[in-house]
Amino acid sequence: MANKNLGDAKKAKNDEFYTQFVDIEKEMNAYLEYDPEVLKDKTILLPCDDPEWSNFTKYFAQNFDTLGLKKLVSTSYAPNSKPKEIPYQPTLFEIDSPDFDESKTQSNGKIFTLSGDRTGDEVINVEDLEWGYLDGDGDFRSDEIKALRDEADVIITNPPFSLFREFLAWIVEAKKEFVIIGNINAITYKEGFPHIKENRLWLGATNFNEGMYFAVPDSWDYSPSYKFEKERNGKKVSRVPGVCWFTNLDHGRRHQPLPLMTEADNIKFSKHKQVKDVGYQKYDNYDAIEVPFTAAIPSDHQGLMGVPITFLDKYSPEQFEIVGTSDNGLIDECFMSTKGLTQAFVDDYYKAGGKGAYKAGNPTAGMYEDGVAKMVYKRIFIKHKALD
Fold first, then answer.
1. For the chain, what are the domain ranges?
2. pLDDT in tens, 171-185
3. Of all helices (H) and strands (E), which one includes residue 298?
């Protein structure tokens, strides 16, 4: 039930999760600490946003001068393109504007731009934002938003969860710098993993192992199992587990080596019962050992290791090389014992009550444990660089 809120969002195409200001500020500070001029003289695009009250727009508008930005562009979806269950009422900001158009307020997206001191108070901030209606509904896949993408230097946003795969491919296609939010399972997507493997994409600086809270509409319905905070600073929120930032902007945390014990010490002292006094099992279809916890990675193992996808939260490119993943067959055949799991293994797996983890032709990490065929959850295969 842990991912039910996110799953419900995908099924209903309910993507109305709004990032809190403090989370945006915390993440951006990590890049600025590593390189204070990382955004200097750059055009920032915030697509899939709600500029009138978005915390992304607010953060970058308030810090326009401090960051040394060249231009800020923020675009939103048209209300008609959102779920009908989400009520829409034009803001006073829009209604009181001489540019208000009752025929466009529902069908057209909006664009907000900031490039200079429009008010004459010698400070560039939210008050200097200029707005207008887009020609279309603001869909990032439209030619209108693609043109803005191509003009931008950096793309930063919380894209619709239900369209994350498409959005990631949309950014990668344009070869832009970016900082975006997505579910950690996206690590193994074919749209992203090859770039992770080649160090063209990595996790952001903020650790969201405990989940991330997003502001949600007042009409939001909590799942029956929801037991976390429902309000922060007077606003309705929902906790979404397994959420993280994806980026190709550098930050200091990714260069910190992970402290590890030797294989012998892990077997003797590990706090994990799967390893202590047991050791490391080998996969039946990969020439690799199963490491069920990042903290249990042995410092002296010279071969391949299968680790949880959450390992990327601790990944240092100077310490490890990423070789592949058990998902989508994204691993070189030289690291595989077989071209897939043997039919005998698959038969044994289903006899043991397994369901749905194996797909024909898609090699999946598996092993026999106490004579029982078991599938392992998604794994990333790594090896030590220093031990090559």
1. 4-254, 256-384
2. 999 999 999 999 888
3. none
